Amino acid sequence: MRFIRHICAGLALLALAACTPAEGAGSEAQAVSAPEGTPVARHGALSITDGKVVDAHGEPVTLRGMSLFWSQWGPQYYTRETVDWLVSDWKVTAIRASIAAEGDDSALQHFDREIAKAATVIEAAEANGIYVLVDWHAHRDHADEAEAFLTEIARRYGHLPNLIYEPFNEPLREGVDWSRDVKPYHERMIAAIRAHDPDNLIIVGSPSWSQDVDIAATDPLEGENIGYTLHYYAATHKQDLRDKGDAALEAGLALMITEFGIVEATGDGPIDMESSNAWWDWAEANGISWLNWSITDRDESSAALKPGTPPAGWSDEDLTESGRILRARLRAAAEAEGY
Hints:
This protein is of the alpha/beta class.
């Protein structure tokens, strides 16, 4: 499977049409290609080597992008036009679909509807040649439903080179232990994914809202292409959390920041640019990908959009202060990398 994907990446770089994935890649497998000049055309399938995320050529990769909001509460942005706009105007290289698995009206009650939202974002990301994280956005163990969801995503889309799985958004702190509770959950989810997708990245959460990466590093998961997410909110989390990240990196874990805010951990409150810049400097120095929370028009300071903003075509007046900061940061990074 990895060999086939590397061929596909090479063909995309030569602007050839496509190649067909290997037999057994899933009953709904389709031709794999990426538009010329896009992140997926440049990098192909990602993997983890020596604690670093690398591309099909063995070169380190840092993805930068945005996370969509809880899918049951921000469905208007789970659209092709939103993804198109984030790629063309914000210059994201990755997007995160936060498929809600908590609360009323979530995937726990409307499985097929939420699968369809994930599918829309995945297919839009594929068409735009960017990477897509599919996040089972839960704080508690819903293992049966999570396994069914991740199995279906892997069965349909596991052949794509741009797919990344996030099986558990933020395990809670109280009464949750990494080795006793969270690690066995991930082992079950990894097995379910690998039954259909043998090699795409799986980025796992840890207790304390995906901040106990140092504890996970003392008892890591076995298997290839497994990384760990580290979540932070800059106005709340400072150097002590980066110290936990450093400990995980020193132990050989590959990290991705699949969710962060430049505000407080509540998702609201004032923007802390001093702390945000310290976090960005740390992430960039360590080659750690990051995705900001979030694309929504909710009335809180972490939201990138003002209330009532349509799915695409946003002017500067449609953006919150957070949205304007993130758009500028993403566009500058893309320009530096030649996108």
